[in-house]
Amino acid sequence: MNRAATINDVAREAGVSRSAVSKVIRDAYGVSDEMRARVNAAIGRLDYRPRVAARAMRGVTDTLGIELPDIGNPFFDKVVTGAMAALSGTGCQLIVAPASAGAEEGLQALRTLADREVDGIVAISPLVAPTWLEDLSGRMPVVMLGRHDRSIGYDTVTGDDAEGTRLVMDHLLSLGHERIAHLTRSEEVTAPGSGTPHAVRLAVYEEHMRRRGLTASVVRTGRSEAEAREAVARLLGGPRRPTAIFAGNDTLALGALGAVGDAGLSTREISVVGYDDVEIASHPAISLTSVDQAGVEMGRRAVELLLSRRAGRTDAVHLAVMPVLRRRRSSGRRIGGHGELVDRSTDG
Amino acid sequence: MNRAATINDVAREAGVSRSAVSKVIRDAYGVSDEMRARVNAAIGRLDYRPRVAARAMRGVTDTLGIELPDIGNPFFDKVVTGAMAALSGTGCQLIVAPASAGAEEGLQALRTLADREVDGIVAISPLVAPTWLEDLSGRMPVVMLGRHDRSIGYDTVTGDDAEGTRLVMDHLLSLGHERIAHLTRSEEVTAPGSGTPHAVRLAVYEEHMRRRGLTASVVRTGRSEAEAREAVARLLGGPRRPTAIFAGNDTLALGALGAVGDAGLSTREISVVGYDDVEIASHPAISLTSVDQAGVEMGRRAVELLLSRRAGRTDAVHLAVMPVLRRRRSSGRRIGGHGELVDRSTDG
DNA sequence: TTGAAAGCGCTAACAA
DNA sequence: TTGTTAGCGCTTTCAA
Predict the structure, then answer these.
(1) Is the Cβ atom of A16 within 7 Å of strand C at any atom?
(2) How far from A234 is each of A222, A237, A286, B248, CA to CA, in Å?
């Protein structure tokens, strides 16, 4: 149990004062080149690393935190990838706080980050109360990812879910579909006006259906693929089977694809479209049409907003990233007997 | 920017001393029920949360850290799920440090955790030098996940990769396969004697082939599905095409499945077996035979080891978790014209 | 340009 | 059972 070197050890080794060392490691103003060299040499010899806890006591941690609901959802991996990319070379470290599910767990994960006094938080939990976030953002910069509600306290980065949903609906409608079901999460996650991505997708879906004089059909499910699969199995076994399913995200879409297969049907008979364009969607055995909402870009932007807050920005910024529809086999068929319209150009 | 409540505020509010509050929040010995009640009431009123940094200065953080290479690999989600489950209700928080790839990034992520003085670390990086880990474990408890090399400094939790590989080879050989290729990562990750999972799987594969008088065929690739797909495409385009591919993990197996499809072949012609049994492996459109090495269990065990170290254990413990082969369609066919042997019992 | 010293919030040893 | 107090390693103000 060798005691780690402290700033005092370095000062002694270099023959200078503690504050001199502090200035060097913080790149602060007022150190001669010679002193800097001496100090850096001592740091190297002692393999010194400043204690984050001690720095935190004075208000800095050089750490950003990102809170993830459902760490198993590959869309969030994209976000983390983007965040890490934006952070590389800044000397700032990234920690992730995973949540299980629901508002309570999201809160816990956010508290884990807040307790560690990170210099900024990227939050993805759609269920945490805005007032709570507002409060949190009074203590450290916060970027809310995905949710459309705005606040003067924290910044937001969202995909344009209305546009993404429009892309999906235009695509399905232009293929001739009229019985389009929407597979989405529980009421809690889609409460009207809550501003969650799923709430927006649902509302815009319903609007498009209404505008065309079609009957909306909403199927609720939990967040897992298995639950989605069961829900869609029930849907397919019921009356007025849909010809297309628009799933609120790719995890649900994979469940839908599973149920379609289980029912002895194929995507030539029932089109399935997802949302997020996770990696597996492009796998040839899946070939799921999906909306790419640029998760890597979102993660990158979120971190940039955090860094600019740290640099002094005080006005709230709200960014929307444009989604793109990736057409694949799962929705390739035109309804009405005009043959297949498989577009494989984006396959793989 | 409202200042958060401190232990002094709570003491004042409750009309007791600072140390009394400290004892209550630490559940320490020597507080009357009445004092505990008063303090807890004050804590509630002020919404007090102890600063982790200040506690860290005195040696405790009530935080465990888990370092993940490749956060996009769904096997690691299982590990995190298990770790969170083991931690729920303990009052200990979990943070995740994601690494990008390679030894250097793994080191960085481990340093991120060490810098935060977590009370224990679950490390998954297969490439970090044992001496470095040994050193780290002198400062805080470390559990190495997956790697088979042992140390008196840190505990290990591994899958039994020799047994898992045996299950795969027995399965493929019993189906009549003789030209079995092994798809694995770069030499760096499979260095003989390094004790990485991939090194063990490779060595045991080669041994099984040798023992049967068969020629081993090893295909190297990067860690991504796309790279695996390209590598397998080259393999299939070359001479002596294999009849079966044993992939070192499911990500590589998915790439192999993609390449098989691209080549206009099916898994009736080329069997594919993976390792990890990630969730998508059981999807009907994929139906990948794979070795389930119980990632959730591994994560749970790892955290338990950390907690028992914290409770005073000093002797090193090395656990191996038994793997199970999940047979699915991707390897269902018997070679030699005896018809299909599809086992769907574990499908879905 | 350099150094001395106060103090961040907490824990733990000790005194009462 | 309760309270007093020293001190963890760092940053930052201020003086030299």
Answers:
(1) yes
(2) 14, 5, 22, 37
